[in-house]
Amino acid sequence: MLALSFVALALSACSVSAAASGFVAPPAELFSPLVAQKVLKTATAFPNPAQYPQYTDRVNGDWIWFTPDQWTTGFFPATLYAMYERTKLCTHSNAGDASQWLSLARTWSTGEVPLETNTGVGHDVGFLSFPFMDELTVDPNNETTVQAVNAFANHLAGRFSPIVGCTRSWDTSDPTDFQVIIDNMMNLEVLFASEKLTGNHTLRDIAISHADKTMVNHIRPDGGSYHVVDYNSTTGAVIRQRTSQGYADNRMCASSKSDSSKVYKHTKKFDYLQTARRIATYFITNIPSDGVVPCPRPADSSAAMIAANGLLLLADQELSVFNFSGSAYYTNAAIKIVRDNTKLAWAPSWQSLLSNGTVNNPQHNNLTGIVYGDYYFITAGNELVSRGLASC
Ligand SMILES: *[C@@H]1O[C@H](CO)[C@@H](O)[C@H](O)[C@H]1NC(C)=O
Ligand SMILES: *[C@@H]1O[C@H](CO)[C@@H](O)[C@H](O)[C@H]1NC(C)=O
Ligand SMILES: *[C@@H]1O[C@H](CO)[C@@H](O)[C@H](O)[C@H]1NC(C)=O
Ligand SMILES: *[C@@H]1O[C@H](CO)[C@@H](O)[C@H](O)[C@H]1NC(C)=O
Ligand SMILES: *[C@@H]1O[C@H](CO)[C@@H](O)[C@H](O)[C@H]1NC(C)=O
Ligand SMILES: *[C@@H]1O[C@H](CO)[C@@H](O)[C@H](O)[C@H]1NC(C)=O
Q: Hey, which family's this protein in (predicted)?
């Protein structure tokens, strides 16, 4: 099976570029000189003590800065790694200087190191680990980084209940009320990464158990999803399935298919691919006619960019089973989402790349730039270039 995927990947490299003319054109903004200029400007304004951008104000689009112990802290350093990667993909372009990006990415990651032993972000340690997983692709022997990935993975594994079969998301006053949110799927990658480093298969078992439970209890048959499932930690029984008010729901329904695809990538278990397809179909069929997501407004450009990345990942997995039409279908859906939402949200005068992000609508935090919206905008551009579907 593994060999087969390699063959598929090798084939895809030629078939994608050969068929490239059949794809929707990505928006030029993905590779605007403003991308490198703005990210660099934010990166060189390094605050001391360390603070990280999370979202912008709604009027001028200036970043609002937060102390490191936030679930979003890893996204800015990961953005810098994405810019570093872009210099490799886009030689002779305005992507900036590779060694400068790498050095900034490392400096910005360093502020996260204390969180290995002391953080309040709970299950979101998976997000904190993003830049460290990036560093491993640059220098797999970087000890600081190996240590960080293992520490964050152990932290997440410590929230696993064998009775429930999941890692706990939110802490609750009644400890038998074991709450799991769909977002938690996005944190599983760190468990696979740490398994690779340590050979500790328990970490993989935890990730798979969590994904299996999520498939059964969070994903509805129509591909829609519940945001929160409450389990009883004593019995493992499902108490209720619900959509939490007071939390940004749309970004995460956008994310869950990307995570099913990722788990599929690691396991090649067909159920995950089927689940990812179901979620993707539900998402695509619910996109309004102007292409701006989500359907209940306000718009959320960050959800759009997460969804686009998820669809590209799913497109990859379709290639690995030789489903070329399925792959092209998801690729085009991804490019259209990027195109239509960039058209709405591209914000040249703001510090962020995009506006029209929704951090948390029930708390009225909407119409902002968001650090992970920009991050997934950049990674979508990188993905399209690496597939030969865009040029820098
Ligand atoms: C290793 O990675 C850490 C952060 O991930 C970084 O601070 C450090 O500079 C890196 N070390 C080397 C030798 O590149
Ligand atoms: C493997 O990881 C699990 C979960 O973090 C941990 O409980 C266990 O001690 C680890 N095993 C080894 C041999 O380190
Ligand atoms: C979980 O089950 C136990 C035992 O049946 C019960 O005492 C407890 O109240 C339940 N917790 C919740 C949150 O329903
Ligand atoms: C996008 O944001 C601008 C202001 O930044 C706002 O005027 C506009 O209504 C927003 N569009 C949507 C569809 O939410
Ligand atoms: C290819 O992908 C499409 C879209 O997910 C799916 O409907 C179709 O069943 C797949 N075809 C095969 C042969 O797997
Ligand atoms: C956006 O947030 C504002 C308050 O900051 C709120 O009044 C408005 O209703 C929200 N917009 C939408 C479309 O929900």
A: Belongs to the glycosyl hydrolase 88 family.
3-52 pLDDT per residue, tens: 222 223 333 333 334 344 589 999 999 999 999 999 999 999 888 889 99
From start to end of 114-176, where are the E strands? 160-161, 166-167
CA-to-CA distance for 324 and 328, rounded, in angstroms?
Answer: 6
Mutate to test the pocket of ligand 4, among 352, 355, 356 (most ligand atoms within 8 A of CB): 356
Question: Ligand 6 center to residue 190 CA distance, Å?
Answer: 35
Q: Confirm if 152 and 129 have CB atoms less than 8 A apart.
A: yes
Crossing angle of helices 301-320 and 270-285, in 10° steps, is: 140
- Say how far apart CA 291 and CA 323 lie, in whole Å: 25
Q: Is 205 left (phi over 0), alpha (psi -120 to 50) or beta?
A: alpha
- Distance between start and end Cα atoms, the chain: 34
Query: What are the Cα distances from residue 265, in Å, to 212, 258, 315?
Result: 14, 10, 12
Q: What is the pLDDT of residues 132-155, one digit of tens each?
A: 999 999 999 999 999 999 999 999
